[in-house]
């Protein structure tokens, strides 16, 4: 009976959300397509580095959108909500890297100019082998990353427009395809600027609303500090047998927090799709300010995410613990779910609708183990006893949890799409530039004409979109693991050799190459062996993490943090080998001198080609 | 001061570079102290103090450090503007 009475209501709410979502998604996608069309390009310089005329603040917004992926937007708050205090490894790991980027890499790479990170590696280490290694790393890092983004797009579409995941992925591929293929970096940049505003509005609206509801300030950062939610969450957590939310080192031990945070920081600074954004600004000074704007825009989301995480944890614990569980029910479209009710002050049973909605997607499962008809969230091995909630739904479900209007739910979905699409576009451009510029044109058609180069870049970007789409539709089991892999590799390979290339004039080809190889191999092998059950499909990992049971790192060195060790090995090997072998040739030492000084970076309108690095003065 | 022609060796800007390195070292020391010190190594000690209704170490780990990162990058950009002008290497 209950069910029949509620259906019209439930149906109406769902339809309103669907209409709003459809409206927002259509409008924003039209804008993205329009920008892609308006900024279509006819030159490689515009295709790869947007003609190097992007203003610092716009580049900051574009970098923020580029950098904040579906993982930041959709998954991070959920992760932090589960990890409590230790969730700061993601917050600080992913923002602290910008300090390294701003002071140690970005300004000098901008002075160097050119199109890609492998360009710098090849010139600085006077080695075409180094170019190939760097290009292959860039492609590998970006492909694994982009596959996850396409998956995110598919899931958001599937949930909010109620299409199949593969249809969602295909729609996403078409949209990214149009603005990336036509406009290259120029189209991507201006689309990302718009996408930033969409995604940040989508994230902040429910966070502000929730903060206003739960504390006396609607500014989440203030409500977080002055409100009493922390105490309340800590109390409920302890009642249910969880450790207190604000207590550190309950999920990761201190040594692992340190290693993971450091690996994420250096990885952030070494990721090619972020670095390449600093090639697009007008000069060195703009590169510095652009790093500031990027971090400011990123912090709007990153300082709000822990607040959302804690507020959502509170709402979930507060709403679901002790809720009544109904009988298994079938919805309109024949999906079964178990309705849950909250008893209000007048003793009336109020359905908790968001739980039903998400059960239909399989991302929440309820199991009344003791058959007492009451939901229990007691701690059993770190999980809730009678309900499983997928961490990825937290941000998307928050507006529903807080019972905000359907248009807010819709705008959050639109924001999730903007986050995933903007990152996907940036990564696709890195893949295309590495394949087309660093590998194909450089080695096979060095004298290719301008239209021919653009043609090849566009073919490569289409190829990359197809590969990404394939992985989005049929994701291999290890995508989640490979994100850690991408960061570890970037931290252990790109970061040290770019850093040494600028700060150590004596660093030579032999040192850099051996350092890079040792760093990558060590990191890759450790991750693969520790995660061979997921990555290679073995029944059990081939290796247990090192130092397990030691007093300083009792749980063993987690594979997410091993990039920090790979980075240290890279530095040690590179410096040792370089001092035992001849110094780099004088023209390379001159190149290092020249990147250290801002004057003489290319003017935005200056045309430049492969040989411009030496002839660096206007 | 005019730029040298492309063929000649660039003239090393030793003083400019040394001051740049000093600025970076100071700022990165603060960065490391806040990110690894306040948010990891001393977090439990800091948690005995409160900021608003939050334990101080927890606040550093989830809010405060990020504000410090932002200020560090801004200070770097401003100081480098000054050094660029002082050493006449500005574009």
Automatic annotation (TrEMBL), chain B:
Pfam families: DUF4212 (PF13937). The chain crosses the membrane at residues 21-46, 66-83. The keyword Aminoacyl-tRNA synthetase does not apply. Keywords: Membrane, Transmembrane, Transmembrane helix. Residues 15-89 form the Sodium symporter small subunit domain. InterPro entries: Na_symporter_ssu. This is DUF4212 domain-containing protein.
């Amino acid at each position: 009976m209950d069910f029949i009475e509620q259906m019209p209501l439930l149906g109406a709410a769902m339809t309103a959300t669907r209409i709003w979502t459809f409206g927002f998604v259509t409008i924003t996608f039209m804008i993205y397509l329009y920008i892609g069309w308006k900024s279509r390009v006819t030159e490689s310089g515009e295709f790869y580095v947007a003609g190097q005329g992007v203003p610092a603040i716009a580049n900051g917004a574009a970098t923020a959108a580029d950098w904040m992926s579906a993982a930041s937007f959709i998954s991070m708050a959920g992760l932090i909500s589960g990890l409590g205090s230790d969730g700061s490894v993601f917050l600080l790991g992913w923002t602290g890297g910008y300090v390294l980027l701003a002071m140690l890499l970005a300004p000098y790479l901008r002075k160097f100019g050119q199109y890609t990170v492998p360009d710098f590696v090849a010139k600085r280490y006077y080695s075409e082998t180094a170019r190939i290694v760097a290009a292959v790393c860039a492609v590998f890092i970006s492909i694994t990353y982009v596959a996850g983004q396409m998956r995110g797009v598919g899931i958001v579409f599937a949930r909010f427009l109620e299409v199949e995941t593969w249809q969602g992925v295909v729609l996403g591929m078409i949209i990214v395809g149009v603005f990336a293929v036509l406009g290259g970096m120029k189209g991507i940049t201006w689309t990302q600027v718009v996408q930033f505003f969409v995604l940040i509005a989508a994230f902040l609206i429910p966070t502000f609303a929730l903060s206003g509801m739960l504390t006396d300030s609607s500014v989440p950062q203030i409500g977080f500090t002055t409100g009493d939610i922390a105490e309340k969450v800590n109390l409920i957590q302890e009642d249910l047998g969880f450790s207190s939310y604000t207590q550190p080192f309950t999920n990761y031990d201190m040594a692992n927090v340190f290693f993971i945070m450091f690996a994420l920081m250096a990885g952030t600074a070494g990721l090619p799709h972020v670095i390449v954004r600093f090639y697009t600004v007008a000069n060195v000074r703009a590169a510095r300010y652009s790093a500031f704007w990027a971090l400011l825009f990123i912090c709007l989301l990153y300082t709000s995410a822990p607040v959302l995480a804690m507020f959502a944890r509170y709402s979930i614990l507060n709403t679901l613990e002790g809720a009544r569980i109904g009988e298994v029910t079938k919805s309109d479209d024949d999906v079964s779910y178990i309705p849950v009710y909250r008893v209000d002050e007048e003793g009336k049973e109020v359905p908790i609708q968001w739980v039903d909605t998400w059960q239909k997607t399989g991302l929440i499962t309820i199991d009344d183990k003791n058959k007492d008809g009451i939901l229990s969230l007691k701690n059993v091995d770190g999980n809730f006893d009678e309900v499983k909630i997928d961490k990825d739904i937290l941000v998307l479900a928050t507006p529903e949890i807080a019972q905000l209007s359907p248009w807010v739910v819709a705008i959050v979905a639109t924001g999730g799409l903007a986050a995933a699409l903007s990152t996907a576009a940036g990564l696709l451009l890195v893949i295309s530039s590495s394949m087309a510029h660093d590998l194909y044109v450089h080695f096979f058609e060095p004298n290719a004409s301008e239209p021919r180069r653009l043609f090849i870049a566009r073919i490569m970007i289409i190829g990359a979109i197809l590969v990404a789409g394939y992985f989005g539709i049929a994701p291999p089991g290890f995508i989640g693991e490979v994100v850690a892999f991408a960061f570890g590799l970037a931290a252990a390979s790109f970061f040290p050799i770019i850093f040494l290339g600028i700060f150590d004039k004596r660093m030579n080809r032999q040192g850099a190459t051996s350092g890079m190889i040792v760093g990558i191999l060590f990191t890759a092998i450790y991750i693969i062996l520790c995660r061979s059950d997921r990555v290679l499909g073995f029944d059990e990992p081939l290796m247990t993490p090192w130092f397990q049971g030691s007093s300083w790192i009792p749980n063993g060195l987690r594979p997410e943090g091993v990039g920090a060790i790979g980075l240290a090995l890279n530095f040690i090997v590179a410096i040792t080998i370089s001092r035992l072998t001849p110094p780099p040739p004088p023209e390379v030492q001159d190149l290092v001198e020249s990147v250290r000084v801002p004057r003489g970076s290319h003017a935005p309108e200056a045309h430049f080609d492969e040989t411009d690095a030496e002839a660096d003065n206007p | 001061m005019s730029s040298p022609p492309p063929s000649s060796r660039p003239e090393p800007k030793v003083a400019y570079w040394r001051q740049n390195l000093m600025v970076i070292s100071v700022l990165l020391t603060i960065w490391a102290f806040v990110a690894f010190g306040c948010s990891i190594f001393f977090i439990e000690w800091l948690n005995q103090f409160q900021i608003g209704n939050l334990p101080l170490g927890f606040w550093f780990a989830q809010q405060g450090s990020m504000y410090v990162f932002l200020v560090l990058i801004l200070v770097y950009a401003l100081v480098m503007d000054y050094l660029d002008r002082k050493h006449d290497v500005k574009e």
